[in-house]
Amino acid sequence: MYSSILAVCLNIDYRKRVQDMMQELIDKYFVEHLSLSEADAKMLHQKYYTEYGLAIEGLVRHHKVDPLEYNRKVDDALPLDGVITPDPQLRQLLVDIDRTKVRPWLFTNAHITHGKRIVKLLGVADLFEGITYCDYTQEFLVCKPHPEMYALAEAQAGVSSAGDCFFVDDSYLNCKHAQARGWTAAHLVEPGLPDPATKGSKYQIQSLEELRQIWPQFFKGFAGSCVNQSSL
What we know:
Layout: E1 5-8, H1 16-34, H2 38-52, H3 55-63, H4 67-73, H5 88-95, E2 104-107, H6 112-122, E3 131-132, H7 147-157, E4 165-169, H8 172-181, E5 184-188, E6 203-205, H9 211-214
Parallel strand pairs: 1-2, 1-4, 2-3, 4-5, 5-6
Helix pairs in contact: 1-2, 2-3
């Protein structure tokens, strides 16, 4: 019986080029479907992202946009083949996780189709035991950093206590809210990006490889003192 989880956000593995491509398609969607100028589209996109954690949630709430149509024209329309490629270092990191102690679990604000596509391209789809995603088929979207999304991940991963959840994400707000819920979070701030004025969570890292140092108990070969069994 597992008692903990380790949740990993997908977009920590995006290359900057992919992020830029995504932003362009989102802004284009705002321009075409809301009849906005490029400047106004960028501003509204950022406003919805800041307020709701996802641009699509603002579009659904205020403009009655069909989230599945949005997904087809934005996330699933990204030409990712050849841009995201298998990542041997990421794969080895996941292989080295001791699954008698923790379950690797994907935790994303993307819809299921995009989430599965990313891990397949990265060559790590077989190394996660489950995925909690933003379900675009629902009338009301639930996404990070809303408390309901963290509760959903706990339920789907079969974890009984928030204190048994370990989480890595590149979003300051997502880590801050996870920490407030009782999760142990690691905020990924990649080299070259400015550090936040205050930490969003207990841990701040520059690379996923640092997980070996901050949570060594979850990796094979750890010879430290006994720790609780865990899953995520």
